[in-house]
């Protein structure tokens, strides 16, 4: 149990274990205004300490120094892919029980391969693409968000946000108010008719802002001088994968040219995907007035996974992405302090 005199918002991040989210004081149960679940896809545990000296005080260090770190945790399922991982964290269950056996797996009834969140019975909302025909219909158990909805007679809001559809959907659960993910081809945040028949006006307006195009103008150069990245291999090594349209993985990156020539997908293999998620997170918290009641929000910083796959876990690109994510998390934490109230209790 984690105790505090006052709770503004509660952070569950990286690896989540069962914990009380309040305390009894004078026979009254104190509840946080907002629970924020953040999954940093493919982040190794040692990155918390590998780059510790380079983190600022209000990002990862805030979580480590002000919260509780469960460091004796074992993953009791295989394979450790996005769909299974997000589902297992937020259901506190395993594939044999929650039903998500992989990103893709064989359906026992049809004996055909299926994608974990694909659903031909729902309509795409916000896009005409099949990328929006997704739902949690294969999920067999309740998530943290589902239980919160049940416990509050469906008054609590539960919203899933992630670049990846499976991250947003499987973390939020079957009864979520909404789940939003990014359609790479449409360059828009989308959802499906499982949740609603239309996008909210504020999200339509956001999609019209062409946020990724605005972020791309800054390109990608290292946050610090290249010679300070001593925890990584050289900037260009043979086993690094290059982004589409490029012949090598080297800094700096002309993100605008890449977007114009190759589309949005390569940029999600950079830290810019995390920037896109961060801006969406703050927008959802603001427009949906999260934190005004007992509400759960789900955020997933999925670009770290793509960076790891593309460039490797010991690359300059990976180190720079985590140093930037540290600042992005600090930005989010400050936003939550001001919008919802101070009193973070990190548990990861």
Features:
single chain, alpha/beta, Alkaline Phosphatase, subunit A, eight-stranded mixed beta sheet, disordered N terminus
Could you please describe the fold and organization of this structure?
This protein is an alpha/beta fold. The chain has one domain: Alkaline Phosphatase, subunit A (3-Layer(aba) Sandwich), CATH 3.40.720.10. 32% of the residues lie in helices and 14% in strands. The protein is built from 12 helices and 12 strands. It has an 8-stranded mixed β-sheet with strand order 7-10-9-8-11-4-1-12, with helices on both faces. Helix 3 (82-91) packs parallel to helix 6 (165-172), helix 10 packs parallel to helix 12 (316-339) and helix 11 packs antiparallel against helix 12 (316-339).
| Unreliable residue runs | 1-7, 14-25
Radius of gyration of CA atoms, rounded to a whole number: 20 Å
- Quickly count the helices: 12
The CATH architecture classification is 3-Layer(aba) Sandwich
The helix-strand sequence is EEEEHHHHEEEHEHEEHHHHEHHE
Estimate percent helicity: 25-40%
- Number of discrete domains: 1
Query: Looking at the structure, what is the overall shape?
Result: globular
Structural class: alpha/beta
Report the β-strand fraction as a percent range: 5-15%
Describe the largest sheet. 8 strands, mixed
CATH superfamily: Alkaline Phosphatase, subunit A
Record the strand order, biggest sheet. 7-10-9-8-11-4-1-12
CATH classification class: Alpha Beta
């Amino acid at each position: 149990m984690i105790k505090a005199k006052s709770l503004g918002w509660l952070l569950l991040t990286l690896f989540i274990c069962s914990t009380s989210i309040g305390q009894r004081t004078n026979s009254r149960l104190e509840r946080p205004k907002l629970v924020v679940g953040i999954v940093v896809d493919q982040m190794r545990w040692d990155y918390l300490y590998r780059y510790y000296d380079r983190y600022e005080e209000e990002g990862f260090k805030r979580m480590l120094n002000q919260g509780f770190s469960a460091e004796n945790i074992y993953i009791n399922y295989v394979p450790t892919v996005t769909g299974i991982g997000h589902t297992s964290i937020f259901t506190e269950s395993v594939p044999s029980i929650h039903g998500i056996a992989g990103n893709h797996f064989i359906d026992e009834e049809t004996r055909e391969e299926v994608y974990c969140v694909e659903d031909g019975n729902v309509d795409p909302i916000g896009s005409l693409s099949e990328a929006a025909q997704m739902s949690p219909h294969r999920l067999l158990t309740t998530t943290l968000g589902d239980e919160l909805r049940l416990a509050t007679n469906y008054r609590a809001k539960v919203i899933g946000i992630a670049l990846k559809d499976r991250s947003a959907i499987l973390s939020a659960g079957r009864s979520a108010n909404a789940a939003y993910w990014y359609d790479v081809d449409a360059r828009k945040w989308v959802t499906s008719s499982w949740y609603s028949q239309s996008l909210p006006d504020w999200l339509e307006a956001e999609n019209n802002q062409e946020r990724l195009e605005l972020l791309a103008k800054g390109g990608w150069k290292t946050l610090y001088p290249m010679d300070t990245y001593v925890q990584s291999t050289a900037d260009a090594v043979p086993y690094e994968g290059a982004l589409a349209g490029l012949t090598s993985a080297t800094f700096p990156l002309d993100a605008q040219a890449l977007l114009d020539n190759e589309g949005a997908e390569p940029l999600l293999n950079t830290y810019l995907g995390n920037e896109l998620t961060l801006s969406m997170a703050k927008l959802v918290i603001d427009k949906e007035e999260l934190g005004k009641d007992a509400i759960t929000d789900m955020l997933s910083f999925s670009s770290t996974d793509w960076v790891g796959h593309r460039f490797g876990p010991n690359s300059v690109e990976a180190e720079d992405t985590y140093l930037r994510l540290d600042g992005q998390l600090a930005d989010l934490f400050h936003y939550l302090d001001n919008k919802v109230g101070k009193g973070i209790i990190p548990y990861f």
